[in-house]
């Protein structure tokens, strides 16, 4: 071959190589965000498979390590062109179906506080779903942007081995095992019982997790193991403590919309695993571990609940954290995200928090999620760690248009202490003047009256209400309100419910979710010393208790009044004892501190 021919051949080879290289699909980024790549955007070309990942535990007691059912959806280029991509991973106990409702499924709540309840009804889940697809969530969002999407059914659900524990260690170790497999540290198998192995040869090892509610809890559970490769998580409305989900300051309290639910009810609801394992799992977990630990008699915080509180497990956590929650989520309440965000920030982890004004669910806008995963999974230096720490959707804005703030709570918020002036059975005054707090006022418990009815009543002995002057300017509240109550009960136990409301109440059809309730909280006066140990109240004796209401960030419009409402049984959340218990408030020993942006000067300006 002549030199001339050799040169021509080399040129042709380089051209062909260049064209081939140009044709290879790779992730594309613009303005710090992963873009949709047409070569990844055709679902017909996606490769969908399933497998089982071996864990390090045997939670169903069959003598074999549990295996988790996993599915994978990836672009064809990971097979044909050797492309390796990061993973967006979601795990859930819900994928294979849940139990339906049944009479008596929830615990009976119409009884005295501390009274043993009658047994409830149990239900069975009829498993659904066909291999290889566990779920289609996340796929259309992330695969076209250059990610692989992975799902897994949590222990004791779907085709995964094991047992649900509702916050037990296996629910943290299961996603850890999947992440270990994605990094070549755990075994994957092509079948549930077989020995043929499968590897994640297409994985870069960089994993991000997201999901909503229970699916948002699992990313945090995985992160608390400190597993290598889990780079970022975006939990949406996560349950971060089962105590805080089913109890409040020593009080047995239901999540909003599920009066009488408790941790064992949720166990029944999700237990969709092997039928032949269910009787054993029920005996060991539901009827022993959960039954002995959950304590519906006292409502106290104990070792059982501490073991299901992820705040206690955060020391090993390394993942970058973007939290998302609704300020009016009365199912998984907004404290769940705030307490984890606060701790992660104190630990020096990369953190952001997104709060909207609606109820349960609601992920951050795509731009926030995309920038987060682009930075921590693809390694693109998009400066996201220097973005605003807090993103709050204002009352009249859409969820995809949050306002940026330096942090949450708003750094400009200062605690303003308000005192109570007598006015029952009408409304008394709420003022920064301490001298008004004199005397005592009594309410009579009656669960027949809802909180909405009590807030709107001009005259009633079933609640105490204290209101500020009418606001002449908008007032911005940001953070946690804290109440100190000095109270006595006519019985050995009493429900204590505290609401901050915006008055006059708007009951019109066009009223918004932010119009009436600012925030609220519940407590058991028996736990005035500690949520870990309550004691029977001596009728007529006064006890002082301090606790936080749910976090909030809200602008109260001019023309409104802020009202502090104190009552007893809350017929949407608490146990419902026989009406008639008297709750007496010592006004001189009772106060509420509200975080006001601009502090006391801003409040005084708003009412002058």
Walk me through the topology.
Elements: H1 3-23, E1 29-30, E2 33-34, E3 47-54, E4 67-74, H2 77-80, E5 85-92, H3 139-142, E6 148-153, H4 170-182, E7 188-189, E8 197-198, E9 203-212, H5 214-223, E10 230-236, H6 242-246, E11 247-248, E12 251-252, H7 263-270, H8 275-294, H9 303-306, E13 320-326, H10 335-346, E14 351-356, H11 366-377, E15 390-392, E16 403-405, E17 413-421, E18 427-431, E19 440-444, H12 451-456, E20 464-467, E21 475-479, E22 482-489, E23 495-503, E24 517-524, E25 543-548, E26 552-556, E27 561-567, E28 582-586, E29 591-597, H13 599-607
Parallel strand pairs: 5-6, 5-9, 9-10, 10-13, 13-14, 14-15, 18-20
Antiparallel strand pairs: 1-2, 3-4, 3-7, 4-6, 7-8, 11-12, 15-16, 17-18, 17-29, 19-28, 20-27, 21-26, 22-25, 22-28, 22-29, 23-24, 23-27
Can you describe this structure in just a few lines?
With 608 residues, this protein is an alpha+beta fold.
Please give a structural write-up:
It is a single chain. With 608 residues, the protein is of the alpha+beta class. The strands form 5 sheets. The chain has a 12-stranded mixed β-sheet, with helices on both faces. The longest helix is centred in the N-terminal third of the chain and has 21 residues, at 3-23. The model is unreliable at 4-21 (pLDDT under 50).
Radius of gyration: 27 Å
Distance between the first and last residues' Cα: 97 Å
Count, helices: 13
Helix content: 10-25%
Strands, count: 29
The profile of the biggest β sheet is: 12 strands, mixed
Stretches where pLDDT is under 50 for at least 5 consecutive residues are 4-21
Please state how the strands of the largest beta sheet are arranged side by side. Answer: 8-7-3-4-6-5-9-10-13-14-15-16
Helix-strand category: alpha+beta
Q: What is the overall silhouette?
A: globular
Mean pLDDT: 95
Quote the beta fraction.
25-35%
